[in-house]
Amino acid sequence: MKDYTPRPDLLAGRVILVTGAGSGLGRAASLAYARHGATVALLGRNEAKLEAVYDEILAAGGPEPAMFPYDLATADDRSLETLANTIAHHLKRLDGVLHSAHQFFSLTPLHLQTLEQWQTLMRVNLIAPFALTRACLPLLQQAQDASVIFTGETHGHHPSAYWGGYAVAKSGLETLTRVWADELGADGNPRINTLIPGPVATTLRSRTHPGLAPETVASADDLMPWYLYLIGADSRAIRGQIVECQT
Ligand SMILES: NC(=O)c1ccc[n+]([C@@H]2O[C@H](COP(=O)([O-])OP(=O)(O)OC[C@H]3O[C@@H](n4cnc5c(N)ncnc54)[C@H](OP(=O)(O)O)[C@@H]3O)[C@@H](O)[C@H]2O)c1
Prior knowledge:
Layout: E1 15-19, H1 24-35, E2 39-44, H2 47-59, E3 66-69, H3 77-91, E4 96-99, H4 115-142, E5 147-151, H5 154-157, H6 164-184, E6 191-196, H7 203-208, H8 224-231, E7 242-244
Parallel strand pairs: 1-2, 1-4, 2-3, 4-5, 5-6, 6-7
Helix pairs in contact: 3-4, 4-6
The protein binds NADP nicotinamide-adenine-dinucleotide phosphate (NAP).
NADP nicotinamide-adenine-dinucleotide phosphate binds next to helix 1 and helix 7.
C-alpha cells in the first residue's frame, strides 16, 4: 500500500466524515481526501482549527467542506443522530468515515490512572467511534462502496506497560472491527477496518516521546497512501482487517 497511487478523481462526488480533522492525521487525511475530489465533513472540538483546514481545502481548489464542531467526550445518541441527519440534509450522502480523534492523558502506571480518566478514554477512543458509526449507518448503507476506518494504535495491538486505558480502548476498536465486519458479512456495506498508523510526527507523538526528533518518524503525509486506499473503492475487498502502516 505504501506505493499505492490513487487516481486524481478517486473520491470525486463522495462525502467523507473525518473526526479529529483539525490536526495531525485527521487534518492530513481531510486535505488528501479533498485533493482527490471528496467533500469532507470536518469534525473536531476546536472551531478555529477546523476553519483553518476548511480554508486550506478551499485555497487548494477542493470542494467546499462542511464543519461540525462537536465534543465526542459528551456524545449521546440523540446529538449523533442530529449530526447524521444534518449530513444527510446538507451533503445528501455519506461514503465514508475516518475516526481519527483521540483522547490521551499521559503514560502512567495503571495504579495511578483514575476512573474519570478511563471513562473519558473509553468515551472518546472507543464508545464515540462505535456510536457515531451506528448513527451514520443508514446513510452509509445507501452509498455504493462505503468505508469506515477506525484508527488503532500499536500499543493496543501489542499491549505494553503505561499505555493503560488508552491501549485498552484502542484494542477494543480492533474487536469492534471484527465483530461488526462479521455481522455485516462478506458483501456488507459499509466495510469496516482498523488502520494502525505506527509512529507519526504529530502532537500526540511529541507528548508520548518528548525530545525525540520528529524527523525520525513518518510524517502524516507519508501515510496518506494507506488512508486513501482504505477509504476509496480500490480497497473494496478489504474488510474486518487490522491494517498496519509500514513506511
Ligand atoms: N501520532 C502517532 O504517532 C500515532 C500513532 C498511532 C496511532 N495514532 C492515532 O492516530 C489518530 C490521530 O492522532 P494524531 O497524532 O493525529 O493526533 P492529534 O494531532 O493530537 O489530533 C487529535 C485530534 O483529535 C481531536 N479530538 C480530541 N478530543 C476530541 C473530542 N473529545 N471530540 C472531538 N475531537 C477530539 C482533536 O481536536 P481538537 O483539537 O479540535 O480538540 C485533534 O484534532 C489517533 O486516533 C491516534 O490514536 C497516532
